[in-house]
Automatic annotation (TrEMBL):
Pfam families documented for this protein: PTS-HPr (PF00381)
Identification of the protein by name: HPr family phosphocarrier protein
Subcellular compartments: Cytoplasm
Superkingdom classification of source: Bacteria
Record domain HPr: where: 1-88
Length: 89
């Protein structure tokens, strides 16, 4: 299991487009992934679940990945957060 602390840094936070990018990325992997923020834990492969976090800019999010390709998943999700979901051009 891998856990990472991430910060939502894109201006609009985890809104529909950013969440769709995250879920699409995760769908290519077998590992289970969860996000925790504001006391809520959700399945990171669920668009509705991630949207329920209502994670705006600056929100601290914990990513937990468990499975056979967990290292790749954790790295790719971290890169997506670091790139601000490719939104802040």
């Amino acid at each position: 299991m891998i856990e990472r602390e991430l910060t939502v840094s894109n201006r609009l936070g985890l809104h529909a487009r950013a969440t769709a990018k995250l879920v699409q990325l995760l769908s290519a992997y077998k590992s289970n992934a969860t996000l925790t923020a504001k006391g809520r834990e959700v399945n990171a492969k669920s668009i509705m679940g991630v949207m329920l976090l209502a994670a705006g800019q600056g929100t601290q999010v914990k990513l937990r990945v468990d499975g056979e390709d967990e290292a790749a998943v954790a790295d790719k999700v971290t890169e997506l957060f670091d790139r601000r979901f490719d939104e802040d051009a």
